[in-house]
Amino acid sequence: MAKTERIERTFSVPDGCELDVRNVSGSIVVTGGEGDQVHIVAIKRWHRWQEAEATEVDIGQEGRRVWARTHVHRREGWPSLRGRRAASVDYAIELPRQSQVEASSVSASVEVSSIEGPVSLEAVSGSVAVRDVQGPVSIRSVGGSVSGHRLQGQLRLETVSGRVDLAESDFNSVGARTVSGALKIATDLHATGKYRAETVSGNVELLVPATTSCTVEGHSISGRLRTSLAHSPQRQSFGTWRIEVGDGGVPLRFDSVSGDLILTAVGEGAAVQAAGGEASEVATQAEPEVTPTTMDILRAIETGRLSVEEGLARLKQLKGGMEAQHGTQ
């Protein structure tokens, strides 16, 4: 049977709060509200005394900064924890709505809601849920799902394999990168905004108003643009396409190896099918022949040693050299 310890702290932050919370196993729940206090409750759970002794909960304040951190200490001579290196800790934190939040976790879920200020979240093997946040939002996730509702401001998103679904949101700019996770983002496209997505194999779906106008530039090996929105005929070259959706205007940049960009009007429901009656598919040219050099470039993209854009540029350069070589033979 698990044993528990409750740790509770309250701090006054009349000038606003800068919260830093870090956890190893368990959960983090951060909720904005009224008043000028930060209230932190940490529930520490363990089965063996070694787990409790190895796990330290550090909560404190210095001016506007308030922190809640889980530290894991390994000591010589202790018997194995049989896969459990630490006790789990569940943090429940209430703070002023006008706050700055930074949270990171490993094998712990993160939930943040009702915040008006910058929010920066990092999670490894844990889910992330964000709702009712106004302010720049930065999310980095490895192996966990990400969900969000009613988010506003600038979005910076990086994920490796987890699914991302951000609904009912309004981002004035988006920078999103994924390796194999599918991204689904609902937002208006602002005239002064910058919108960019990079993917290796995951699809990126943008849900936008049916009256959206934008200029889409795509760079891909075998990825496609799929949309039912009215658009002009595409201009296409090796691995590159450009189309005007509606009247054009707001720049939308998409770089991929094999992932698709899907533009869906809000209310259409499921992603547009490439073979659907009114749907349009812009296919790139055939994937280049895979040579050892080409494979090295693809692997560099997948491992992050090259950005998608850099990798595509090198593939294009390689293809040009091969065509020139064949032309002289």
Describe the structure concisely for a colleague.
The protein is mostly beta strands and 329 residues long. It has helices spanning 49-54, 292-303, 308-328, and strands at residues 3-12, 17-23, 26-33, 37-46, 55-62, 65-72, 88-96, 99-106, 108-116, 119-124, 128-134, 137-142, 146-159, 164-167, 170-178, 183-186, 195-199, 204-208, 214-220, 224-227, 235-237, 240-245, 250-256, 261-265, 280-283.
Beta strand %: over 45%
Order of helices and strands: EEEEHEEEEEEEEEEEEEEEEEEEEEHH
Give Rg in angstroms. Answer: 24 Å
The pLDDT mean sits at 83
Describe the fold and architecture:
There is one protein chain. With 329 residues, the chain is mainly beta. Among the domains are: 109 residues, no CATH class; 31 residues, no CATH class. Helix content is 12%, strand content 53%. It is built from 3 helices and 25 strands. The chain has a 25-stranded mixed sheet that branches.
Index terms:
329 residues; mainly beta
How do the strands and helices of this protein lay out in sequence?
Layout: E1 3-12, E2 17-23, E3 26-33, E4 37-46, H1 49-54, E5 55-62, E6 65-72, E7 88-96, E8 99-106, E9 108-116, E10 119-124, E11 128-134, E12 137-142, E13 146-159, E14 164-167, E15 170-178, E16 183-186, E17 195-199, E18 204-208, E19 214-220, E20 224-227, E21 235-237, E22 240-245, E23 250-256, E24 261-265, E25 280-283, H2 292-303, H3 308-328
Parallel strand pairs: 2-6, 2-8, 3-7, 3-9, 8-10, 9-11, 10-12, 11-13, 12-13, 13-14, 13-15, 14-16, 15-17, 16-18, 17-23, 18-24, 19-23, 20-24
Antiparallel strand pairs: 1-4, 4-7, 5-6, 19-22, 20-25, 21-22
Helix pairs in contact: 2-3
